[in-house]
Amino acid sequence: MPGKKDKKQKKNASTVKDYLDDIVVDDLSGGRWAPPRNWNRIHGNGKSTSGGQFHIETMKDSTGKYVAKIVGTNDESVVVIDHENSANGPSFAQIISVLRAKYG
Question: What is the distance between the alpha carbons of residues 48 and 46, in angstroms, rounded to a whole number?
Fold first, then answer.
């Protein structure tokens, strides 16, 4: 019908590398490590530029390790984020750095 918008969405061609390259660390919020033993989603990470195809989740696991993953990839395996005895755990910059090294 004339005037109706096509509701079909175009598939976004963004890669995981594109998604990570577009992240501005200073814009990130939420997620990280609380509550422990639960996946926590990071916000402000450019999901809109990838069409919502990817997002980052973080967790402090039951052994006390800090881990992160990118949901929506073919490889959703976790990466361990090493950190320097910070009471708050690894920073957003550390998380993104480790993920960029994995998917770079």
Answer: 5
